[in-house]
Amino acid sequence: MNKFNLSTNEKKINLTIGMLKDDDGIRLRELSTVRKAELEVINQNLNKEYTPMAGTPDFLSSIRSLIFPEEQFPSSNTNILVIQTITGGGSLRSGSELIRKLISNKIYVSNQTFSPYKSIFRDLEVISYPYFNSENKSLDITKLLSFLEKIEDKSVVNFQVSSHNPTGLDPSKEEWEKIAEICMKKNILVFFDLAYLGYGNGSIEEDLFPIHYFQRKNIEMLISYSSGKSFMNYCDDIGALLVSTRERSSLEKIKAHLFVINRGLFSFSSIYGSRIISRILLDEKLKGEWLNELQETWKNLRAKRQDILNALIKENVHQVDFLKNQKGIYMFFDLNNAQVDYLGDKYSIFVVPGGRISISSLAADKIEYFAKAMKDTLNQN
Ligand SMILES: Cc1ncc(COP(=O)(O)O)c(C=O)c1O
Fold first, then answer.
1. Which ligand 1 atom is at minimum distance from the Cα of 224?
2. Rounded CA gap, 86 and 226, in Å?
3. Cis (ω within 30 of 0) for the bond into 116?
4. In angstroms, what is the span from residue 226 Cα to ligand 1's centroid?
5. What angle do CA 265, 266, 269 make, to 5 degrees?
6. Is the CB of 239 within 6 Å of ligand 1?
7. What pLDDT, in 10s, does the model give residues 260-303?
8. What percent helix, strand, coil does the chain show, rounded to 5?
9. Is 18's C-beta closer than 6 angstroms to any atom of ligand 1?
10. Staple partner for 106: which of 125, 219, 222, 327, CB 3.0–4.6 Å?
């Protein structure tokens, strides 16, 4: 970001930030359903009372049924607790403290990963498990499964659901089933990170497959939900931490711990953002419109990804096959630090270390320039 701001090159492009942009790659994309709900909430003239410690009841029930639809997972007979937090990062942080207090002093995360995990899980030892294979640029499921087989029973393992950041590679359904089998056998507690709901497969139901599958298999889980990307409400981002246990009785104890943890972390979550989200999710019509807008964004990203791929192919860049398997709002080129610097210094194209670009920040009329620069950069070893 700093380098981008300092650059005087008129061709400069900032591809670092994970916010959805309009076609010009600059203006923030907005969801009209969010604007509509916001106006309705403002017009209700509600007061600004303290949010209850668990969160606002409407928000909690709407997030529960977003992630665990009532028809499939009736609230009457499952063991799921939902707590409102601030942002996905806040949910991960609360979960980290809960793990430290009750379960373990370490957590396993994938080997290419969301870099803030290190500081978010700072009270835990953060250990990498094999995920991205840099040789063939693919998800190394064999190594991942055999690693899981070897870790201690009752370990805590973090998995991202619905478009892995930064690699864009998710396990297939069959691979999730194999992961679940080991988690069941070894009593592994899974900490799912759901920050990109809607961006994996163009269907919320498909994106939630691993969570639903693990729930049906009775595997104990923590789930961190971030609304930032799926509602594009970045600065009003309300998160949720969901806990699914086998013993309903343990939920009360967990809830009490989370109250203390969250009071120490952020006191109260904002009521404002939560009212907007629950306004959308509790109204069938608005919810349907929101789902359509989200799917439209997913389609745009898919089309832009294809345009970038075509431009790379036109430039005779050979090493692009792996990009076709990636999902989500990013493309991941697996660049080394020297290549990232080269791209910035020579072309004023700024990307996250590792070579992750935010697709929607690349405007259509800059794709050709990007593809030429990337070709040159990939040839620098
Ligand atoms: C994988 C992953 N997890 C969690 C988060 C955190 O989400 P939030 O911005 O809501 O804190 C992000 C945000 O970019 C992310 O990419």
1. 4
2. 9
3. no
4. 7
5. 140
6. yes
7. 999 999 998 999 999 999 999 999 999 999 999 999 999 999 99
8. 50, 15, 35
9. yes
10. 125
